[in-house]
Every structure is written in structure tokens, then in C-alpha cells.
Amino acid sequence: MISTLVVDDDYRVAHIHAACVDRVHDFNCVGQAHSASEARRMATELRPDLILLDIYLPDEDGLTLFRSLAATLTPSPDCIVITAARDLNTVRAAMGLGAIYYLVKPFGLQQLRDQLEAYSAWRSHTAIGKDLEADQATVDSLYALRHPASRRIGLPPLAPTMARVLEVVSESKSPLSAAAIAGLVGVSRPTAQRYLTNLERRGLVCLRLAYGTTGRPVHLYVAAPGGHRT
Fold it and tell me: Which CATH superfamily is domain 2-126 in?
């Protein structure tokens, strides 16, 4: 069982997330914390495998908590950030600290379930091969397991950055430009454009042209119909 600690200052939200965790196969919610100090105490006592972590806590921000747990607990728990924080600096900071994933509130519980199942698959594969050496193809497949977007569509796993580009497009409620996608993923615009072109050829994203009053049309991207469904 994957022991999971839910950390959220909203008691109702924490309860909902905990119930969702308990409904996913091989997961067990071992506790709910509503402040950083409570989360630190419970993490030290319970040693969870995974923490679902809100950033906005009453006594300390979640990323500072995550950093301190990583420094003091061995082995340190994995973390999925669940927050209303949308600024790119916070997203990058979470990624830099090693967060498994970043879910922006509000979101559907199916999205949380998808990420938990992806984490379980990734954890199983890394445990099986912990004493083996990995070539680049193996590394790419393990990274791709953390991003369900490439698995749900029944295709071979995409390379990690391409899977992330597809995920950003799939989760957006409106069409995105290559520049916007590049900013969200943390890559250069030409790199994002290269992956988008590849994804378009695969039939996973669709190109839309937005025409203004003058100048060249803006290229916008949306997920292909059915391309991001479970």
C-alpha cells in the first residue's frame, strides 16, 4: 500500500481528497494535516510514501515545508502539489524541488485519480528495476509514466518533454500559442514548436489559426478530439 498524507488548510477539501485517495487501488490515506506544523509532525511520525500538498498553509508555505521534509526525512516522501497558485515561478519552484506533479485548483477528482495511478505505475517500475542500470529509452519511459497524457491515448510513451507539452495543451480550457506553452513547460519557443509539430503529425493536437486585423495569423493549439480522454 502507498501511504499518503493529505495536507490542506481547508478541512472539507482535505476530507474530499483523502476519500479520493482511499478509493484508488493500493493507496491508503494515513492522515490529514491542516497546517505546516501539523504536517511536519505527522510526516515525521507516519513516514508517508506520498504527500498531497497545498501551498497556501496558515503558518508556512507548502514549498518551504516540502524542502525541509526532503532535507530531514530519509527516505523523503514524494509530493504531488495541489494548489490554487498559478504563477509560473511557483510551478517552477515545485518542479525544481522534485514534485511528482502539480495540480491547479479547481480540478476534477478524475485528474487526481489519474495522477495517483500514474504515480503508482512509476513507483512499481522503479522498484522493480532499482538494482539495474537504465538506458535512455528506459529513463524516458519512466518519466512518461508520471504523465498520464501519453498513456491514456493508447500510444507508446512519449518522451518526457513531449508528454508534458501534450499535457499542458490537453488541460488548457482555451487554445494556446507555442510561446504560451513554452512558458508553461519551461522550454524555449522553438523547442515547444518542434514538439507541437510532432504532436500535430501524430494527431494528438490540432492547429487553429487566429486572424487579427493585420499581420500574419497566430497559431494556436488545442487537444485533438478524444486525444486526452481516459
Answer: Response regulator (3.40.50.2300)
Amino acid identity for residue 207 in this structure: L
Grid cell in block for residue 113: 485519480
The CATH code for residues 144-223 is 1.10.10.10
Q: Which residue carries 495511478 as its cell?
A: 117
Q: Which of 229, 224, 19, 15 is nearest to 116 (CA)?
A: 19
Neighbours of 16 (CB within 10 A): 15
- Tens digit of each residue's pLDDT (9 = 90 or more) over 84-137: 888 888 888 888 888 888 888 887 888 888 889 888 877 876 665 555 565 565
Cα–Cα distance list, 95 to 80, 81, 90, 178 (Å): 10, 10, 9, 21
Q: Domain ranges in the chain? A: 2-126, 144-223
